[in-house]
Amino acid sequence: MPARYGGFETAVEEIGKRLAAAGHEITVYCRGERHPEPEYLGMRLVHLPAVKRKVAETLSHTGLSVLHAARRRPDAALVFNAANAPLLPVLRTLRIPVATHVDGLEWKRTKWSGTGQRYYRTAESLAVRWSDALISDALGIRDYYRERFGAESVFIAYGAPILEETDTAKLAEAGYAPGRFHLVVARFEPENHVHLAIEGYRRSAAREPLVIVGSAPYADEYTARLRELAGDDPRVTFLGGVWDQDLLDALYAGALTYVHGHSVGGTNPSLLRAMGAGASVLAYDVNFNREVLGEEAGRFFGDAASLAAAIEAAEADPGAAADRGGAARKRAAERYVWDDVAAAYERLCVDLKERRLTRRTVRPRD
Questions:
Q1: How far apart are CA 17 and CA 284, in angstroms?
Q2: Domain around 198
Q3: CA 295, chain centre distance (Å)
Q4: Which residues cross the membrane (predicted)?
């Protein structure tokens, strides 16, 4: 906190501040850059270290967080990421009711080796066995846990920030004009198909530049591949990570198209942010993205050729692209509301505290 990187951080900030405002005591366990104050937006922050290695960072930090929580005995715990499931028995031994947000299908990410993939598959089953409730942020994720484990989950999507106008001054400072560039915002991972965005764009006859926002903490090889694909094409620009949230919003809102290649998550916060900014979305064709966008609020691609055609169509008819962006903003404002999301989490936590949700709620029948 404050949230800067990733959907979980954003969700915890948006949900936590609303629960704190409603009078609940909220403790958030943080890693990384330390906020200078012990509280933020009404939430108590506890900063703990982590082992700075891909395979150990999450679990080491959560282990310390669980030990700290053991002294405080909260009424309920929310654990984000099924990878933390091996630590759930500690919370259960302490009789702290827990709900696990299972996230997306992490084992499908190529950054994990065979061992990593097996770990994540096992962690999913452990989350089912040891959680009092599971949280799914997409219907596709809910269906996956039903079909694979016979387990039920509480469906709670994310919210979308809604922007009504573009900060043209921010865009001008960055060297861009509204409607005069295409945008990608993603971690540099193969499952986010940044390579396909570059391939499709370069195959097109696009006149407007492609702006790529993102980085890769553990993927130097993939980053090198992306730069090789871009070659010396002057139309392709890598901005790196953009931590200025006002500038990032201006980029979303000012883009002619936003190319969304994410394929293995649930309801993706970057997609919701683009929709809330009124961006015209070109999304990789998977069930998660179709669930969020519906049939009218975006266009879908599955390969470089179809993406190239969609980019060319947007440049040929920017008015139609802008209309789709308006439809996306309307859909986000109606279906992905943070106040509703926080209210759902409040009901969940009360149910956990009152023991209306137990391990039998999610475990498959023997």
A1: 32
A2: 168-335
A3: 21
A4: none
